[in-house]
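Below is a filled-in request sheet from our internal design queue. Each sheet records the structural input a requester submitted and the sequence that came back. We keep these sheets so that new team members can see what a complete request looks like end to end.

REQUESTER: design group, bay 2
PRIORITY: normal
MODE: inverse folding
CHAIN LENGTH: 383
BACKBONE (tokenized):
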């Protein structure tokens, strides 16, 4: 059977764009977009076929075309909720994974100070702990994440003490009063480091993907603080500009509807942008879909994010906002401001059947890309 779709003169082609804003992962460009495309092609209720590559104002995407029901089944299809028009769905990706820093080469002393900066920002700040009352699932996720952060830092301190114990940093010579503190630190670390328990912990931490957790915690901290690098403006400004450029290019084309589909930390970028989007005509044909968002948790730590969520929920110009979340996806829950949104859309709870280890290691967090209910909702033709 040929995948070529013949469109009669009576068929009305409705053009729909989906712009995916992926979450925090160092992956190749279009990796997540192609996963989304493959899963959309598996939908049985709204069958689609791939129609090749498409380019819009420099943005490369993939085009999917709906397969309309046969004429003798059209009435039954409309009753079942199937689209009554031929539609083109172009899938784009607002790529930003290349802006995630790789693990930098640091001296043991630099890693120790870097680790303390992360711990102090997340663990030793009272705002982080206020999220415990959000839900029991959030509480479990925060407790697990906080425990892993502390264990990681203790292991880091032990390794740093062993590495620099025989060669103290140069600045200790200039500040003699710190030398006894440093000596006590090395001595204490030597006692704890001899415990077999820490050897076991050091072996378990990589298995639980703690390195990914640390890099994410550091990245979000830098984003909230809008941390500049050596030559450019702050991280938040650079990320906003990157994602905004893709959205602008898609909006400039004459699509009937644009779905901004954001996952994980990508939802924070989407909230940040759409809460301030200046072009009202764009918003009138925009449907925002957030999935697996950590915004409810991060808003406790960042008053700025909480304000952006409130601003977004008050934007009557946005056509629709749907939020998908799963209680088995720890650290992610319903976005609190969604219930205050007066436009179309709703909150949707998904039931992922996963094991404890999958929740702990974050594997559950990627299941949104293949959830049938969510995928069907993405491709429905809307009036």
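RETURNED SEQUENCE:
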């Amino acid at each position: 059977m040929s995948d070529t779709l013949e469109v009669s003169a009576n068929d009305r082609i409705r053009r729909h764009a989906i712009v995916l804003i992926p979450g925090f992962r160092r992956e190749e460009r279009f990796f997540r977009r192609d996963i989304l495309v493959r899963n959309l092609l598996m939908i049985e209720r709204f069958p689609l076929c791939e129609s090749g590559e498409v380019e819009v104002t420099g943005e490369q995407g993939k085009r999917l075309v709906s397969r309309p029901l046969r004429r003798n089944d059209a009435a039954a299809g409309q009753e079942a909720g199937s689209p009554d028009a031929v539609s083109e769905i172009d899938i784009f990706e607002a790529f930003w994974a290349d802006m995630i820093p790789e693990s930098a080469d640091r001296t043991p002393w630099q890693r120790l100070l870097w680790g303390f900066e992360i711990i102090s920002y997340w663990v030793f700040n009272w705002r982080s702990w206020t999220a415990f009352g959000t839900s029991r699932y959030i509480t479990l996720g925060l407790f697990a994440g906080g425990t892993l952060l502390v264990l990681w830092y203790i292991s880091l301190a032990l390794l740093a003490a062993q590495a620099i114990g025989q060669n103290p940093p140069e600045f200790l010579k200039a500040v003699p009063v710190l030398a006894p503190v440093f000596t006590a630190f090395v001595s204490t670390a030597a006692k704890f480091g001899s415990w077999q328990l820490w050897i076991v912990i050091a072996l378990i931490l990589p298995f639980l993907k703690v390195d990914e957790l640390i890099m994410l915690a550091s990245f979000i901290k830098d984003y909230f603080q809008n941390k500049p690098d050596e030559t450019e403006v702050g991280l938040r400004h650079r990320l906003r500009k990157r994602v905004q450029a893709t959205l602008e290019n898609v909006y400039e084309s004459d699509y009937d509807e644009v779905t901004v589909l954001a996952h994980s930390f990508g939802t924070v970028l989407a909230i940040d942008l759409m809460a301030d989007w200046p072009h009202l005509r764009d918003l009138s044909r925009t449907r925002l879909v957030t999935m697996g968002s950590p915004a409810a948790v991060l808003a406790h730590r960042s008053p700025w994010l909480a304000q952006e969520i409130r601003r977004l929920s008050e934007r009557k110009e946005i056509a629709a906002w749907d939020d998908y979340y799963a209680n088995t996806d720890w650290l992610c829950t319903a976005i609190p401001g969604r219930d205050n949104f007066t436009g179309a859309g709703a909150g949707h709870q998904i039931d992922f059947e996963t094991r404890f280890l999958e929740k702990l290691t974050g594997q559950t967090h990627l299941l949104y890309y293949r959830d049938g209910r969510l995928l069907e909702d993405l491709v429905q033709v809307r009036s």
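SHEET NOTES:
- The beta strands are 14-21, 48-56, 59-66, 87-93, 257-263, 286-291, 320-326, 347-350.
- Residues 80 and 92 are 29 Å apart (CA to CA).
FILED BY: M.R.
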